[in-house]
């Protein structure tokens, strides 16, 4: 059995400077610090953020499988970036019953970054495209949203609220209920709901184009 330092890791990273993109990569336990430092020295203006990381028996096999599964969403065949919601990747990794080590990578990233680096990343996130507002997206009160993967509906009852199963809540909370996820589980609901045949993410992206100045 491999010892702790030899165990391999697959990670899912995002970066505030690259909204909509996810990096799927691998490293080993003993090379975590070096790998995270390399990523931040490749020209990105702010540090990456670790959405999820886990130990696996063979990181090359798992990484290759993920790259193949989401190949159509890959930005460049020579780079590990994908235009995808991180939740989709994390869900697959969790099905493998892996041991999560997200905190390990996140602490490594924070250790290599200065206070100014981390603050810049937070400020960039705050200045990004605004939170989803149904009215601003042209979705009126009373509009019915359809869940993409099942027989569920939610009715818009406020700029950021829906009526779901006779209870007003955020669309994020409604999505957690549909998926059976904990109340503190982080996810973006927009890809999972449709209005007039388009996902809310498609509607949002058509209005707030990635790269536009707000």
Our estimate of the beta-strand percent is 15-25%
The major sheet is characterized as: 6 strands, antiparallel
Tell me the number of strands: 11
Mean pLDDT: 82
Physical arrangement of strands within the biggest beta sheet = 9-8-7-6-10-11
The number of distinct helices, counting runs of at least 4 residues, comes to 7
- Low-pLDDT segments: 1-5, 210-214
The separation of the N and C termini measures 53 Å
What does this entry look like structurally?
- With 214 residues, the chain is α+β, with helices and mostly antiparallel strands.
- It has helices spanning 32-40, 59-69, 86-95, 102-112, 115-126, 171-179, 200-207, and strands at residues 8-14, 21-28, 49-56, 81-83, 99-100, 144-147, 153-158, 161-164, 167-169, 193-195, 198-199.
- It has two domains: 4-126, no CATH class; 144-207, no CATH class.
- The chain has seven helices and eleven strands.
- Strands 9-8-7-6-10-11 form a six-stranded antiparallel β-sheet. A five-stranded antiparallel β-sheet has the order 4-2-1-3-5, with helices on both faces.
- A hairpin with a 2-residue loop joins strand 8 and strand 9 (167-169).
- Helix 1 (32-40) packs across helix 4 (102-112).
- The longest helix is centred in the middle third of the chain and has 12 residues, at 115-126.
- It is globular, with a radius of gyration of 19 Å.
- The protein starts with 7 loop residues before the first strand and ends in a 7-residue tail after the last helix.
- Mean pLDDT is 82; it is low at 1-5 and 210-214.
């Amino acid at each position: 059995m491999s010892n702790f330092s030899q165990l391999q890791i697959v990670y899912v990273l995002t970066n505030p400077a690259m909204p909509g993109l996810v990096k799927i990569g691998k490293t080993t336990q003993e090379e975590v610090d070096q790998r995270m430092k390399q990523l931040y020295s490749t020209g990105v203006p702010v540090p990456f953020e670790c959405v999820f990381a886990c130990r696996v028996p063979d990181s090359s096999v798992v990484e290759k499988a993920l790259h193949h599964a989401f190949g159509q969403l890959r930005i460049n065949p020579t780079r590990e970036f994908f235009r995808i919601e991180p939740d989709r990747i994390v869900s697959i990794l969790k099905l493998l019953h892996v041991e999560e080590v997200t905190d390990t990578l996140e602490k490594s990233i924070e250790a290599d970054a200065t206070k100014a680096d981390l603050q810049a990343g937070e400020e960039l996130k705050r200045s990004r495209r605004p939170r989803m507002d149904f009215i601003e997206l042209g979705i009126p009160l009373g509009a019915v949203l359809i869940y993409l993967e099942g027989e569920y509906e939610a009715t818009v009852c406020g700029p950021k609220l829906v009526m779901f199963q006779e209870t007003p809540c955020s669309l994020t909370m409604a999505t957690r209920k549909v998926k059976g996820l904990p109340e503190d589980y982080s996810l973006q609901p927009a890809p999972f709901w449709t209005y007039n045949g388009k996902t809310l993410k498609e509607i949002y992206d058509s209005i707030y184009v990635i790269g536009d100045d707000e």
